[in-house]
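Before going further, learn to read the protein records used in this course. The integers have meaning only within a learned vocabulary of local backbone shapes. To see the layout at work, look at the sequence and tokens printed below.
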Amino acid sequence: MKYPIKKLFLLSFAAIMLGCVDLDEKPVGLLAPESMFRSKQDVQTAIFGAYGWIATERLYGRQFVSALMLRSDMEDIGDRGTPAERQQVNDFSMDDNNNMVIQFWPTWYQVISAANAAIAGAEALKLPENEINPLIAEARFVRAFSYFHLVQVFGDIPYIDYFISNPNTVKEISKTPAATVYTGIMADLEFAKQWLPEKQPAEVRSRPSKGTAASYLASVYLTNQDYQKAYTEAKWVIDNKDKFGYALEADFQTLFKAPQANNMKEHVFDIDFLGLQSGAGGANDDIVPPMTGVRGGDAPRSGWSVIVPSMKVYETWDSRDYRKEVSFDDSIMIGGKLAPYTQFPNTKRPHIAKYARFAGNSNSEGRYSDHNYAAFRYAEVLLIAAEASAELNGSNEEAIGYINQIRARARNWAGKQTNFPENVKAGLGKAEFIELVLEERRLELAFEYKRWYDIKRRNLGEKVFKGPDAMEPHANFNPARDYLMPLPRVELQVNPNLAPQNPGY
């Protein structure tokens, strides 16, 4: 389902004030949700506006997802002529004035502000629960989705779960402990699971369902090492997959071939971009394909070679795995001839293919694509269930079965059945099996903005950046500093209540 690009600056009032308000000025007026929301349609417009903020250059169009990629051990800087802000994120040398953070921090709060406005407006309508609560649940899901990203990246953050109508209240905003933020996230997702429909109209995946809320609950519990609840939620989604219309796509490539179907069965939640359209403030501007594409290739495949895996990421991935074929471009048309990566004009390494290869309706560099980016796939539900089950019961038949479902799909090489990767067999110890699951996540979800979160939640930084098998070595990685990014300096200057800064910055 394609949504119109909407300007909801009024509904983003709280986020704007967080970064721009002069705390010595007197408020010029108050905002009241009841004056802006007179119908369910007005509430839905605000929610759609929140989705619009997510599908901007500052979040899923480039800045935020690029930061997640560069922070992990799967993606590296290709062209070192790219702005220093990206190199700093990649090289663990960022400071509190990093422009990527300055871009995406307030935008996430714009999303949250739009969601809070929708919730307040919906409640002001005083409609029966069964009529209005599904919309409130959708807004609360969006709020939980936003805070789940923010708390993982920054730790303690301002947690605002109300619509700010008085600028004076900004003076009192301070950081909330991460544990309290997680409590709010879980409460929102539980409400969403209760009140969202089993399927949205036309089964679109850019709006959440009960299955979406439960899947994110499973991920939140996994992040917090509550393995019983993570397993329970993931298993509930698996057991009810037919109700939600979930399944693995037969061909892995289908997941990354724009334009994707709006009701793709593997998508649990996606971020929907519209081809060749853009709006103010970077709205609908998808720059991920050119950021990851090969600089110097023939149109429409030419990119910028900014985010490029190291050679070791490519070389250690078994070439019999179809997912490697889908995930990498190791040759491309240059000057009308197929050229291997050793002849790429700028960065002579295989590049990420998931976004640039089939950018669909886009410009000559793949910009303004019509990708539906999977923020959560059914494959990840299976992976969460396997990991949580193993944490509870060690390597077991059920957990092994979830991994083998994913591997069976990987053996389908564009319709031709192969024998790699083989099924996991019984007999592995608990630690060995969990390591296998994490490796399966690394490959299955490669370049999909998940790896950094796995490194962080499993405390893998020193192993993957400083160990003998590091694919992207960074000797300066410091676990006391680098599992969190810094709060933007400008935010602390405007509001000292946000202090202290994260350690090491």
